[in-house]
């Protein structure tokens, strides 16, 4: 038995590596080191008092009992941060819209030019994409559209 930093080391490993890994994965970054240090220290004391086997069983129970609350707290923190970020985006939206409307009324000629340009662009895009959709994607409104190409092909061949 040797002593390292005030804690007894019994055969080198009191807390199995998988237990340390689980706690590192579940615990918040600011709490990881002291949580693992406390676990190691208590496991060392239990190894001295009752043996290595008892220390490992104790550490297994401690890790199993700690994982649930640590994961729940981590999920709550992530949800809270996500919600606050989303809400901060929506908070400024009203003032941005009011500023945009105010600027549009300050220069009516520029506003009219922008609105007409947008309307023509959106209308033109809609017309082109509707035409492409009807010609390329939609089936022809006839009973046997595959015969239509044959009739057109024969008609053009007879003219030549």
Structural features, described:
The chain has 160 residues and is mainly alpha-helical. It folds into 2 domains: 2-91; 93-159. It has helices at residues 17-26, 29-50, 52-91, 93-106, 108-137, 145-159, and strands at residues 2-4, 7-9. The chain has a two-stranded antiparallel sheet with strand order 1-2. A hairpin with a 2-residue loop joins strand 1 (2-4) and strand 2. The radius of gyration is 36 Å and the shape is elongated. The N and C termini lie far apart (105 Å). The model is unreliable at 1-11 (pLDDT under 50).
Structure in a nutshell:
The protein is 82% helix and 4% strand.
In one word, what is the shape?
elongated
Instruction: Name the helicity range.
Output: over 70%
Main sheet: strand order: 1-2
Strand content: under 5%
Distance between the termini: 105 Å
């Amino acid at each position: 038995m040797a002593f390292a930093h005030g804690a007894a080391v019994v055969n080198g490993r009191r807390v199995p590596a998988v237990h340390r890994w689980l706690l590192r994965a579940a615990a918040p970054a600011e709490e990881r080191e002291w949580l693992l240090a406390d676990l190691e220290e208590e496991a060392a004391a239990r190894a001295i008092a009752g043996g290595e086997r008892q220390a490992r069983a104790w550490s297994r129970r401690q890790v199993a009992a700690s994982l649930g609350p640590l994961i729940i707290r981590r999920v709550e923190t992530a949800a809270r941060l996500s919600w606050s970020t989303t809400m901060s985006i929506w908070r400024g939206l009203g003032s941005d819209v009011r500023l945009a409307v105010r600027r549009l009324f300050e220069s009516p000629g520029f506003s009219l030019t922008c609105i007409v340009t947008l309307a023509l662009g959106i209308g033109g895009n809609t017309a082109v994409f509707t035409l492409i959709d009807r010609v390329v994607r939609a089936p022809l409104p006839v009973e046997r559209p595959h015969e239509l190409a044959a009739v057109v092909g024969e008609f053009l061949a007879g003219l030549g």
